[in-house]
Amino acid sequence: MKKFLSVLALSSMLVGLGACSSEENGSEIEEIHPNGRVFIKLDNVAGPSSRMTENPKTESDITEFHNGFIIFGTPKSAIRKHYEIVTDASQADLTDHTVLLDDLRKGKTFEGVPGDVTNVAIVANVSEEELSAAEFHNGTIRFHTDVLNKVIYLKNQYADNMSHVALYDMKQLTSTGKGMMGAALEMKPMCARIEIDKITPGPDVVEYTIEGIGLAGFYDRMAISQLSNRDYWTAPDYDAADPAVELHEFFKSWPYLVNYDIRGVESTVGEGASAKKVTTFYPTEKGKSWVYPFFAKSEIREDNEHYGLRLIVKVSNLKVYLKNEDGDKQLVDVTKRDKDNGVSDEKAGIRYLNINGFVEDYHNTQSAAIQFYNGYVYKVQSFEITTQNLSDKIMPADMNVNISVSVKPWVIKKIYPQI
Q: Which residues contact 347 (CB under 8 A, 6 or more apart)?
């Protein structure tokens, strides 16, 4: 089976650093730049702008840089020097601990960098609530581990089409020749994104309506270290007696993780006697996608304690072909059958497609589930509603539906529902 996995170049920020070499000064390691001069330049950095909230990402999209911090550290995690990166020229003159983003784009030499500094890090696009400049300036944050333990929130990652999600990288300074030191930082997004362009019916589905699509199991925050914490896992009550009410209440707190802007488009497939009408569901506005941010795993670690992603699709007005005891197909009105079996009018005909597994191979149920990683956009492909994978419950324990995934980096990934 063909793999739908491809990798595009990540739109990133590249940081080059260099410094002059000289003598020791009694620090914890050999002094590598006693003149205290380090040159930093940010390439391929986009300034702040406004974007629509539901445009699908492309390989040309660059995550915007809105604010940030440069951190010079030692091997023992001590922060020797820091700078706040600002975009407003009037802010850059407030203190010698600020630097203007435009200056970094041109290239800037930093004076007085202590000789025991061996690494540099940049954290970008964080709110005051997540990482405060005051904590740097007043000495509350003294170690790089203090930064890594800070928590970023999912609510801050989705705005403006995810054009300024939180970014981070840290690299060691290494010799670049002629007494110069340098490092290249790749500013990777600290979250992932899933995009769904459309939902189609399987061959056994005659009529159906998509009422809502949402994430119903995710981390609502994540440490900058990107280590998982089960306390941050958020989900509705999967055992709720009334799933519709439970999901409605749950998504009141997470309105950007559920979509109701859905339109059905009817078309005819096949010819002659085999022709039939099918309905495909799309976002209400043409050219848009249903998109959701989420916290995945860091690419630099293996973490078996990280929960996967949960996606739920609410379906109603189902008319499907089912086989009877003789193996013959017959058309079944699910709503009518539910009512005939004593199901209330509010619940009759309502089913949920529960998705909690993703694979690389399309229609290969034996494939091992892939791991999601931060910095990737996952694009759902061939998303079909079929009778085999619908339930009147949300995320029942015995349900494990695979969706095939292909990759294109921000990184952007295409995903195929294995249903």
A: 242, 244, 338, 392
